[in-house]
Design goal:
3 domains; Growth Hormone, Chain: A; globular; mainly alpha; about 550 residues; single chain; three-stranded antiparallel beta sheet
Length: about 550
């Protein structure tokens, strides 16, 4: 029994050592072992052994330590403890699912105007389309969809310029609020800013039909405010994982949450057109706005900023998260070390990659429907199904990529920085090669679809690569950095869509080739910058106090 009790004490986790210098020496720990050994030989120190429990006076420890049985019973106890701290039914995974649902709703609310706009106006002109218009089947499909909503909802006489003006409203709001939203989340936490923003975006979605009746200016103002609310949701969710995600589960939790944007876009593609045809275009805004309001009511009682404050979390899971968090420098700090950040090469590597990655992403979402209809000759219905297929493949790839990254990390197969760079390289090189080849395989629809699927599946791996690397190098500034990175992505998207439009308008055939080649080249350039500058350890400026503050 003495030998077994010594082995038990040897396997007990040693007390956590705080950064303030409260460290327990190995000599003290060995002293407890010697005291235990003497006690098991029959010595008495005031507290005996009763029912297999050592008193605190015997070990000098607070509380009591129960001697675990050997064999199958001990293995069963370990398995139960592991199940308490990990598992898909944990509170942290429930939080990831709730963020996933929020992102689905944000994705639908971002795209619902794009889906409903053809039914809201008399004529919708596709940018980059040839003068003689899309193919006959596409015209028949669009005419069929345009006739029905006329009897169900009002139709407005908006010019193509006014339509583009309205579609840019969300981007304007996101651009204005990217950096301030990070500051708000850093000061106020995640629960109330994100919950209020989600509710505000959903309520505003319900008023889109009324704003459309009031005119273009009213609708633009409403969508701009809606963009401000949506960017708070996007920024806040990353700040939440600083306190909620254990180091070996961060990738899968972020992937589950962020993949909701892809599923939301997929949902609006599949359901939006049907709602416009059967119930009228206002139903698109009423349905997703109402669902968003209902989900916002679930947010406030279920989400807490810190696991220690959550009333429904188990002790095992809370201790598991707190132990993992104690090993990371993740204390929130809303003040920014501006000078140190401006000279941080790993941060610049991430910024450059964000610019190059979202150049490709924005160009793809803005012009891929036009390319499918005007160059490949697909009808609007077939184009919608193909885009839905690409989004479904991206969603599956993102979730599986997060699980793969955590598996490799937990088994110590690869270091974190290697995992980040490998997934990023795969997420850039394959899509870049696919886009570069599109011009030369446009005569074969099957090859084109295969290239697009491969590009979409692999591009989602960047979500587990460089796109969340800021959580590794500066977890305490996660909210502020995400807002700053989002600003970079907005600038990149504005430039890329403008350049692509200019190239396509100059030459209908070579313009597409030049657009694809330019996007691929910029993506590869951003990848090279990240591979050289990227790091995965917490930077000094994110760990220590620095004199220059904002």
């Amino acid at each position: 029994m003495a030998l077994h009790m010594e082995n038990l004490l040897e396997t007990q986790p040693r007390p956590q050592m705080k950064a303030t210098g409260e460290r327990r020496s190995r000599a003290g720990w060995e002293g407890r072992r010697r005291g235990l050994h003497g006690l098991t030989q029959g010595e008495s120190h005031g507290d005996g052994i009763q029912d297999g429990v050592l008193g605190p006076a015997a070990l000098g420890l607070r509380g009591k330590i129960r001697i675990r049985p050997e064999g199958p019973e001990r293995a069963a106890d370990s398995a139960r403890e592991q199940a308490d701290s990990t598992g898909l039914c944990s509170v942290r995974h429930g939080l990831a699912v709730l963020f996933h649902l929020c992102n689905i709703l944000i994705g639908t609310q971002q795209m619902n105007l794009s889906i409903a706009l053809p039914a809201m106006v008399n004529v919708t002109v596709l940018p980059g389309a040839p003068p003689d218009g899309p193919p006959a089947d596409a015209q028949d499909s669009s005419n069929d969809t345009a006739k029905e909503p006329e009897a169900l909802a009002p139709v407005y006489d908006w010019s193509p310029e006014a339509q583009g003006f309205l579609l840019s409203a969300l981007s304007v709001g996101s651009f204005l609020a990217s950096i301030p939203s990070g500051f708000v989340v850093g000061v106020c936490g995640v629960k109330y800013p994100v919950g209020v923003a989600m509710l505000a975006s959903s309520v505003l979605n319900l008023f889109v039909p009324l704003a459309a009746d009031a005119g273009v200016a009213s609708l633009f103002a409403l969508r701009t405010v809606q963009g401000v609310a949506q960017v708070v949701v996007s920024v806040g969710q990353y700040a939440a994982w600083v306190k909620w995600a254990p180091a070996l589960e961060k990738n899968q939790l972020v992937a589950i949450a962020a993949s909701g944007l892809m599923l939301g876009t997929l949902t609006i593609f599949l359901v939006g057109g049907f709602l416009c045809q059967t119930l009228g275009w206002p139903s698109v805004f009423y349905v997703f706005g109402g669902v968003g309001c209902a989900c916002s009511c679930l947010w406030f009682p279920l989400v807490y900023d810190d696991p220690a404050d959550h009333p429904f979390i188990g002790t095992g899971e809370r201790d598991h998260i707190m132990r993992s968090r104690a090993q990371q420098d993740s204390a929130a700090d809303w003040s920014l070390p501006v000078k140190a950040m401006s000279t941080s090469l790993p941060l610049w590597g991430i910024l450059v990659f964000y610019f190059s990655e979202y150049w490709l992403v924005y160009m793809k979402f803005a012009y891929m429907p036009t390319y499918l209809s005007s160059v490949l000759g697909l009808s609007l219905t077939n184009s919608g199904f193909l885009l839905a297929l690409l989004l479904a493949a991206s969603f599956a790839s993102a979730v599986l990529g997060g699980l793969l990254a955590d598996f490799l990390l937990s088994r110590e197969v690869l270091r974190l920085v290697v995992i980040r760079k490998l997934l990023t390289a795969a997420g850039v090189l394959f899509p870049a090669a696919s886009f570069a080849c599109l011009h030369w395989v446009r005569s074969s629809l099957g090859v084109t679809v295969a290239l697009l699927v491969v590009g979409s599946v692999t591009n989602s791996l960047c979500l587990i690569g460089a796109l969340i690397n800021f959580l590794d190098i500066a977890p305490r500034y996660a909210g502020s950095l995400q807002g700053f990175l989002l600003l970079f992505s907005q600038v990149s998207g504005a430039i890329s869509t403008t350049v692509a439009g200019a190239l396509i308008s100059q030459d209908a055939e070579l313009g597409w080739r030049n657009t694809f080649l330019l996007s691929a080249a910029i993506s590869v350039a951003g990848l090279l910058a990240y591979l050289v500058l990227g790091r995965a350890e917490v930077q000094d400026w994110a760990r220590d106090e620095t004199p220059t503050r904002l």
